Amino acid sequence: MSLAQAASDDVGVGAPPVAVEGDRPLRVDPKTALGAIDLVTVVVAAVISVLVVDPLGNGARVGTSDAEFVLLVMSTLPVWLAIFAGQRLYNIRFIGRRIDEVRRIVNATFLGSMGVALAAFFVDLELPRSRIIVLFVATTLLVTAEREVARRTFAAMRARGRMVRNVVIAGANPEGRELAAMLRTDAWLGYHVLGFVDDTVTDPEPVPGVPLLGTVADAGEILQARRGASVIVAASAIESATTNRLARDLLDRGVHVELSSTLRDIASQRLVVRPLGRFPVVYVEPVQRDGWRRTAKRVFDVALASLTLLAASPVLLAAMVAIRLDSRGPVLFRQVRVGRNGRPFQVIKLRTMVVDAEERRAELLEANEADGPLFKMTDDPRVTRVGKVLRTTSIDELPQLWNVIRGEMSLVGPRPALPHETEAWDPLLTQRLRVTPGITGMWQVNGRSESSFEDYTRLDLYYVDNWSLLIDLAILAKTVPVVLLRQGAK
């Protein structure tokens, strides 16, 4: 994550993304296409709002006619376009940053809906409140869906070398090399790494496939020769005075400049660049976990867990019968886990192993494929035949919904830790106990079976440090395809 991306897309100027060798120019500017689709989406949302008859009991067909309302919305389309642009929804970099983008979409659609209400007031049109509410909800959902399609489209195009920005990395220290490796691996981000500039490294290829192009002093000429290329400065590799000189030189040449940040585990929406005298300071917004936010999370947890448990009860009952017929022992498996603020509780799952699984664990320690305190085997002999199916489909986790209803767990949160794991934690990891553990989390949607202990802790700490209701909704949305496609479940 670059500082420019994290704090403001106005840090640095320069040419738009350019094609790598062999790329064909785009026939339609992506921003123009998005703008046109947004305008159509707003009109569709207006039509939807007139098709929904009095959803909130406010007389949807009183006053303004259907046609008048749609025409009113169409007359405000330039305002909608300006609001969307003001929320930076046409900045290609924000597409794909789901949480930040959804927040901007909600802000934009709310302001646009209020603009329609204000326009109705000035032209003296009687407008039911339900129309505005439905318009807001419909535009929010439709634009969010539209941007998800755009994100996937742009990612696919970038992976094929389209809409790609050529970039040179200033600094070939560990941070710079890690950045280059990440950009090469995650092609969907839209960067093609040309090479490094560095004053201390002599290796002609600091990263396989990424050559050393010259020194930092050569950066201006190197980038000017590669028209449209930009530079990312690895902040820890170059002194601030050198970075300032480099930035001035490159900006004068019309080169886009970005500065990477070591604040990679802090969500970008929490970072704000503010001037402090002559120094630009990155202010980290505090995480708001208490008050109405905690209440809203709890209400959402109970409501969705109750509905899911009710809907899944036939599946749960069938699984219980299968367990009983497959192997001896109880249907449910209970295990002590550590909850919020260190309070122990019993997590409930469907039993997927033989009864003496814990006793046999010591015999299998040498075959452990996980690191840290985790235990993981590709083909664990303790797992029953039915248990394999339950684990693959995540049906074994359904009883945890009762833990959610009881308040011991949340739908989304850090992985609930075992007592012996917490005993080995350092002070940093104890921050995981500040929030309620969850059935799903960032570890679940990022390949839970393939994750190392370090990955688990990093993802859990990221969640704790950056929690928001939008993040919870995004994780839940990503959990559905993960479960259905059986990704990472073993």
Question: What descriptive keywords fit this protein?
Answer:
globular, 3 domains, 11% strand, disordered N terminus, alpha/beta, Rossmann fold, two-stranded antiparallel ribbon, 490 residues, EPS_sugar_tfrase, Bact_transf, 5-stranded parallel β-sheet
A few lines on this structure:
The protein has 490 residues and is of the alpha/beta class.
Question: What do you see in this structure?
Answer:
With 490 residues, the chain is α/β, with parallel strands linked by helices. It has 3 domains: 3-23 and 164-284, Rossmann fold, CATH 3.40.50.20; 30-159, no CATH class; 292-484, no CATH class. It is 46% helix and 11% strand. It has helices at 3-7, 30-51, 66-75, 77-86, 98-122, 129-159, 174-185, 219-225, 240-252, 292-311, 313-326, 357-361, 385-393, 400-406, 419-423, 453-466, 469-484; strands at residues 165-170, 191-197, 212-214, 230-233, 257-259, 271-276, 279-284, 332-338, 344-350, 410-412, 438-440. The strands form 4 sheets. It has a 5-stranded parallel beta sheet, sandwiched between helices. A two-stranded antiparallel sheet has the order 6-7. Strands 8-9 form a two-stranded antiparallel sheet. The longest helix is centred in the N-terminal third of the chain and has 31 residues, at 129-159. The radius of gyration is 27 Å and the shape is globular. Mean pLDDT is 81; it is low at 1-23 and 54-63.
